[in-house]
Each structure stands twice: as C-alpha cells, then as structure tokens.
Please model this.
Amino acid sequence: MALDTSGDIPTTCRTTLNSPRMLITVGSEEAAEKERRISPMKKLNCWEFMECGKEQGGSKTGGTDGCAASRLTEADGFNGGKNAGRMCWAVAGNLCGGSAVGMFVPKVVSCMNCRFYKYVSEEEGENLRFVL
Model:
C-alpha cells in the first residue's frame, strides 16, 4: 500500500516514501540523498525473550531435543516466529517454568497472563494468530 504523497513533499522524498525498499528521507533535497534504511526489528521467539536456553540445541536442554515450541515446524512463520516460537501458548508439552506444560485448554489461561504472550499480542495486534 503506497502512502499518499500528493502534498508538499519534494519529488525525491515522494519516490522514496513509496519505494518497496522502505527507505525514508528527511529534510531538504540535499538531505534526501542521505537515506536511512529502516529494517524491521527481528521478532523474538519465546526462548529468546525468556532467555531460557531450552530451545532446540539450546544450552539448557539437558540432553533432550529442547522445548516443543522450538521444534514444531508446522507453525514456522506464524506471528513471524521460528517454528512455534511466537505461539508457544498453543503447543502442548512446551517447557515453561522448567517442566513440560500439558494440554492447551488447562494451560492457556496462565499463558495469557505470561509477559511473552502479552508482548506478542501487542506486537501483532489484530493479526495475532492464536491457535495452530
């Protein structure tokens, strides 16, 4: 979706604002030559946000395959995460709080109070994918 740049914006800025490379120029025509690329911030997965080390291959897996959320490839890309890293609340058997957390329905209430769930929910807004 292109921005409405029909107002009093210099031509160089108009072109830049509508660029698919998401470049922004600021100030005068001279300043328009100095472009700053806006790179979207990396979306954190639960194991990165919580710094638990229990992701697949993580430092605190204790010889296991790691948390189920880090292994569920069917959810890769959901909410912008790796595997189920940004929808761990929908995964049975993830390693929240040090032990495997069970079925979706009993655990989802505590998940909705989790600071990571609130973080993802705020970031994704109405685009939040809640279940697989």
The chain has six helices and two strands. The helical segments are 11-17, 29-32, 46-50, 68-71, 104-112, 115-124.
